[in-house]
Amino acid sequence: MRKISILLATLGLVVTGALFPVASAQASAACDTAWNAATPGRFGAFEDIHCAGVLGSDADDDPNWADSVGSFQGSDNDKASSLLHKGNSGLAVRVWSDANYRGNFGCITKDEKYVSDLHDNYLTGGTDKFRAWDSISSHEWVSEAYCYGAFLS
Length: 153
Ligand SMILES: [Ca+2]
Ligand SMILES: [Ca+2]
Ligand SMILES: [Ca+2]
Fold this sequence. Notes:
single chain, signal, Gamma-B Crystallin, domain 1, binds calcium ion, three-stranded antiparallel sheet
């Protein structure tokens, strides 16, 4: 009888695990695939949700997604609807609603790996909050302390 109880308990754990798969990180099979394929050390942004429609990727900072230099240019501005983080350094990527690291900000951490739908998020860093989708205009790598609790998920 005791053996059966243990067996049932084990089965219970398996079922529970299947019902609640990594609820914290908005699991997305498409973003998992994109993350696995991404070059290590890079941050990436996508025009659509679920890591579809690559806008660009960057191992460095880009202070202006609307200009004609760097990894993000011109029409990339105010387009991102999902993000990917495959950094190695442990730094977070802080994204801003305006160019030159101004406006409102939010961060994606290394542990988060990706944000599959920015429509669920706001850039809460700064004096107010601003929508996270179709608004990003600059990004930079910073230690998590400089995110001041404004984390995207
Ligand atoms: Ca740029
Ligand atoms: Ca978009
Ligand atoms: Ca913007």
